[in-house]
Amino acid sequence: MTLRFKSVPLSNNNPIENVPENPETESQFISTLRKNVNDYFKQNGISTKGNFTLASQTFSMFAIYLVPFVLMLTIPMAWWVGLILTVVMGIGIAGVGMCVMHDALHGSFSSKEWLNKLFGGSMYLLGGNVANWKMQHNVLHHTYTNIDGEDGDIAPRWPLRLSDNHPVRKIHRYQYIHAFFFYGLMTITRLVNDFTQLAEFKKNGITTKFKLNVTKEYLIMVAGKLLYLGIFIALPIIFTHFTWWQVLIGFVTMHWVAGFILSTIFQLAHVVEGAEQPMPDGEGIIHHDWAVHELRTTSDFARNNRFINWYVGGLNFQIEHHLFPYISHVHYHKIAPIVERTAREFGLEYNLKPSFGKALGSHVRRLKELSRSRA
Predict the structure, then answer these.
(1) pTM
(2) Residues 20-76 pLDDT 10s
(3) 3-state helix, strand, coil in the chain (%, to 5)
(4) If we measure between CA atoms, which residue out of 28, 21, 27, 23 comes closest to residue 4?
(5) Are residues 142 and 83 in contact, defined by beta-carbon separation less than 8 angstroms?
(6) In a 3-state reduction of DSSP, which class is residue 251?
(7) Distances in Å between the alpha carbon of 133 and those of 36, 42, 97, 172, 228?
(8) Cα–Cα distances in Å, from 51 out to 37, 121, 161, 265?
(9) What is the rounded radius of gyration, in angstroms, for the C-alpha atoms of the chain?
């Protein structure tokens, strides 16, 4: 069944077709909001893409990721020093993913497409795959946010229940505690899960919509992952005094830290109190305008925290990101008040958690709710 909203999403890669126009008040929200946001950029004479702030973030995140690795390859050190450096590398991986790769694959890093492709390719330095990311994140997640069966980010996972529409199991009882351990497995499991995900996309016809050569993508995936493993596992084994098992422990530690950060930050925007998980009716229709749907399923947090604004690449401004994915995250702190004010003018809820702590507490409470409620 093809899902439909009352109006067409803004994504250039939108897979929804033949969506009826909505003459009601909801459909006026996004046109008014776009005008208000566009006026901000016109009046200030600035581009919607990245600027010097993004350039400095890019340099910083790559440095946090790669400098510790170079140090481990070139300077003899105790095992525990190396382990600390792998933790720093994990922080860097998350930073590159949130601040650099994310913007670039949305086309908001630069007005020059070749720069977006170049820095979007940093996904391969994280062990992932560009094509999979674009299909799963840019289209499915951004179009069908928090819709069970369409948004893979709330898909059922054996130890975790992230949707009201999944059955409750005994293992979910304490998920508000053990969830954070499993969050850390996010990036390392992608090393294998990319293959099965691409097969699923082919089966569901998504690769056909993107006109992808699946065989070519598999070859790119295999080559990219072998090169990645060769650099970050083989090189340390060859050029350092660390044993192979010490290198593997460091590799897993690096990925666990990265996955923990990335997953936690993401969950604070979508699996919190007030972020809805709507289901379509029998005809596959979501009875809200797409833009309103994004407001109802997404949350901002810690908008005034300078460190979080710098490190997480605007992922604490998820409402703005979902409504304007083509605008670089460096502008979100300026347009967020515009989005909030416009939403209030239309009588729409704007889900804001004032601090990281408030957002984390809301996520834990939501995990507890999901461990008890039944579909």
Answers:
(1) 0.91
(2) 344 457 778 999 999 999 999 999 999 999 999 999 999 999 999 999 999 999 999
(3) 65, 0, 35
(4) 21
(5) no
(6) helix
(7) 30, 32, 11, 28, 17
(8) 18, 19, 39, 24
(9) 21
